[in-house]
Structure formats: C-alpha cells, structure tokens
Design goal:
Elements: H1 2-18, E1 54-60, H2 64-79, E2 82-85, E3 88-91, E4 96-101, H3 103-127, H4 132-140, H5 143-149, H6 156-169, H7 174-179, E5 185-192, E6 198-200, H8 203-207, H9 218-225, E7 235-238, H10 253-259, H11 268-274, E8 279-280, E9 283-284, E10 288-292, H12 295-298, H13 303-310, H14 315-322, E11 327-335, H15 354-393, E12 400-411, H16 418-425, H17 435-451, H18 453-462
Parallel strand pairs: 1-4, 1-11, 4-5, 11-12
Antiparallel strand pairs: 2-3, 5-6, 5-10, 7-10, 8-9
Helix pairs in contact: 1-5, 2-3, 2-17, 3-9, 6-9
Length: 469
Amino acid sequence: MTRWLARCAGAALCLLVAACSSAHYAINPPLTQVDPHKGYRLQRFVAQDPDDSLLLHVSFSGGGLRAATLGLGVLDELRETPIHWAGKDERLFDQIDIVMGLSGGSMLVGSLAMGGEAGLARFEEALLRGTPQADFVGGLLTPATLWRLSSPNYGRSDALEHFLDDRLFRGSRFGDLSAQPRKPFAVIYASDMVSGGRFEFVQEQFDFLCSDLDGVKLARAVAASSAVPLLLSPVTFWNHAGAAPGKDCGPPLLRQAARSQPGHVSSRRLVELEGYRDLQAAEPRRPFIHLIDGGLADNVSARGPTDYIGQFGGIVSSARFAGYQRLQRVVFIVVNAETSARAPEDLSAQVPGPLRTAFALADIPINRNSDIALDQMRATVQAWRDEVRQAQARGEDTPFADDVEFHLVEVSLDSPDPALSERLKAIPTSLQLPEADVALLREHARQRLRSSPEFRAMLRSLQPTATQE
C-alpha cells in the first residue's frame, strides 16, 4: 500500500509539473503623465532644507550577503559616529542623502529605504539569522512553485521576488516610499540584458517606459538586481511608451532637465535611456525589457554618481537640479565587497568544467569593469573639485560654498593582516552566512572605515574643533 501511494503521489507530481501553468509575473503599470512633483524622484527626497550643506552618498557593491553584511557594518559605524555640523549635534548616519546598491547590496538598500533603522533590524532578522538560502531552495522544490515555474511567464527570479517579499519586504512598494519622502533616497539597479546599461529603479528611468514605479514592489527590484545569469532568470518589465492616443505620457523629466543646460551635449547615459523611447509604427522598438544582475553594468556602484552628474554636463548643474544651494561638504563612501581570493581551479591541472567556465564569462568582465570604474571615480572626483573652483573663479553663482570639500572614502575586504584579508575574501557569494562570518564582516567594516585616512580627514573637516586620534 505504501509503495502504491508513493507511486500515485509521484505520478500526480509529474502531471502537476507537466501541466502548463498560467502563472504570470507582476506587470509594471503604465504612467498617464510625467509629473515632476510625483513619484519616486531624487528631487522630492534630498535638499528639502535650504540649509542642507552636507551631501553624503553611500554605495554598496554586489556579492550576496557578504556585500550586504559588509555594508551593514559601515552603517553600524555611521550610526555611532557623532558629528557637530551646522550648529547641531547629530550622527553621521542621519546625514545620509543617497544610498545605492545592487545584488546583495540592494537587499540592504531596500531595507534601509523601507524602514530606516527599523528596516535594518528587519533585514538582520530575515536574512542574517536562520537558513534563508536553504529556505529559498526548498521553496523552489515545492509542488506549487514547480507548477508556477512551468509557465513561460514565471521564472526563478520571480520566485526569489516572492521569497524576499514574504520574508523581508512584506508587500512594500515604491509608492509607499514616495508617499512620504524622507532621506535617504535609495537607488537599486539592475543591468539591461540587451544594452548592458544600468537600469535604475527610480521614476526618472521609468519615465522613459511611460511606467509608474509606484506600483512596483521593492522585492521585484531587488530580485532583478540579483538575477545572476544561469542561476536565476531575467526579470521582465513592460515598456508602455508609444505615440498612440492615450499612450504617450509626455517627455521624460531627465530629458527636459538635461537639454535645458547651457552647451548641452547628450551623455552616454541619456543615449541609453532614449533608446527605450525609440518607436516603430507608433510602438516601442523594445516593448519588453529584460533585466539581469546589476553587477554586469557596475558591480561597485561607482558609475552611479558619475553617470548622474554626466547627464547634466557637470557637478554644478547636477547639484543645482537636485536642489542644493550651499554645499560645503560632498562625501562619497564606496563599500566594495568584491573578492580576489585564489580560485580552486588555479590549484588543479585539470581542465575547468563547463559550469565554472560559464561563470567566468560573467566574473571576468565584472571584476575588470569594477577596477576601471573605481579608477574613473577617483579621477572624476578630482575633476569635480576643479570644475567648482573654476566656476567660482569666473564669478559664477554655484550651489557650492567657497570652502567646499570633496571626499571619497573606500571600504573593502583588504586588511593589513594578510591572513584576515584571505579569510574575508574566502566568504562565498551566497544568501546565507554563518554567524561567525557575519560578526567578522561587520567588525572589519567598522575598523576599516574608522581607520581610513580620508574618513578621518572628513570628520576633522566636519568638526574642526574636535581632536581626531
């Protein structure tokens, strides 16, 4: 009898999986009209106070929970770093204007945007405790999920979205964020599978699709940002742009703002965005946009600030567009959890297998592009300093104070202790970490930030009367 029941159950499961499911991913809603005063837009979140004179931008790299935990350690240190600025005693954490992240870093960014410090506590409970990776994989093998995965309109990343929504985000949408704008403004991004460009989950990007980001779940953005090729499926978004009556939502806000700048020259980023508005017979040439892991576009979030500023032709125009009036300090903190530990293949004379070779197709460009992006950002920050000084020397009215300072702070897995560095870089890119690895990453992040010469110099500039050891 037992064997008969087992055979019946197996046959039923096979029939269930074989049947074509009608499951469908969530479709992003259309946008009726572009409105600069509505939606999840940078200008509605930052520079709301005319006296806001400190711009703090923090970015988090990809790298699974290793990246998210390293980033959490940096936020731990910022929460415990007191400053005296603009006549107020505050924490540096409270001055964060913008956070940007992808893949593992996007999970942290989304949590912070969703609930501030309470969101970070929820992130710890949901993903740094228990067995999240085992739970996700186990959920993929349930009959209900296997049935949904048999649909051509439902993939493994859609299952990840549902897992993250149930476990962490609990139905939160971008509309919940835009309803009550508050800092920090969070930018989650993925990679466009066709163009290779960065696809940001901000309304300025969705203007080009004539789509309303308010109706999109945070979990879907994070799933798209984390959609590692081969392991997870691309995440699909609909392009609602078109010239037919009732389909044209109006010119995108970024296009109007960029073209209004003196001597406007279209940037590479704007050219990518305009591609979503290309029409053929009154319909978009790309009616469906497929997104994959954001690391393929920029795995250390270093190009985000440079691309944003490049859209306006420079730091002066972009700061003015964002609403700043008298910036005295501009600080960028880049949290980089990329690893460079020796691959096991380097210790073997055997020919690497097809799976490892396939992963190398993604790993090689990600690592090389990250190095280039960081080098470019270091050079670009210096160029921004020069641009502001030159504009001030010409007597131009800029949104920067005469004594403005720029600071670029980098936090990585590198350590003066080679053994510790090797230990940190051996932590895998996964959705689950042992408690010992979590504690090690958080403490390392705090120590590296605290000991950073650039970070210490920035703190001295914020508190000129304080003595920094």
